[in-house]
Amino acid sequence: MKETIPVPRPLRRRLWYSVVSSVLFILIVSIEGCQRPDYNAMHQSISALSLGSRGWIQMLNFIIFGAFVLSTVTIWRAILIGRKWAIAFPALIAIAGASIIICGIIPQDPAPGYDPEGLSLKEPTLTGLLHLLFAGIGALSSVVGLLIMAKHFSGDPLWHGWTVYSVIMAIVMIACVTVYGIWSIESTGYAGTFERIAAMVLPVWSLTFLVRLETGVPFMK
Questions:
Q1: What is the pTM of this model?
Q2: Which of 94, 126, 153, 192 could form a disulfide with 159 if both were Cys (CB 3.0 to 4.6 A apart)?
C-alpha cells in the first residue's frame, strides 16, 4: 500500500501560476468588454472580443492563458502518479489548454447583437464552426476531467465530500454551457453571463483544491 504524502511546494507553486493566469484572463476580458461601446458582456461571449480592430488583444489573451493551462500537464501527472486514471486527467487538461489556444488563433463569427466589422453573415463560416468545435472540446474535456477527479477522491477519508463537490462543479458547467448555447442565438439576454460562470468552474475548483493542499492535506502517492 503506497503512502499518501503532501504535494511538494514546487508543484503547488506551479499550479498557482495557472490559477493566477485565469484571474488575469478574466480581468483582461472585463477590461476589454468595457472598451467596446456595442459589446454587452452580460450577453456576448468572451470569444466575441476577438472581433474588430482590438480583437488581437483577446486572441493573445486566449493563447497565453491556454499556454499556462498546458504548463500544468506535467504537474498533474506528477501529482496523480500511482493512482488509477493517473494519465486521463493530465491528458484532458492538455486537450483543454490546446483548445483554448486554438480558439485564440481561430476567431468566432460575428454573434447576434455584436458585429463590429459589419459583415452581416447569412451562414456560418468554416473558421467560425471550427472555433465552436474547439470551444466545445475544451468544455467537454473540463467536465470529464472533473468527473475523473471525483473518482480520485472517492473513498479517501482525507478528502471527504470532494467527490460530490467535483460532480456538482461538472454539473454546473454542463448547465451553464447549455444555457449559453441556447441563449447565444438571440441578440440580447444573459448568454455571456452563463458562459463566464462556466469558464470559471475549473479555475475555482483548482483554487479550492490548491488551498486545501496548502494546509498540508496529503494527496500524492
A1: 0.93
A2: 153
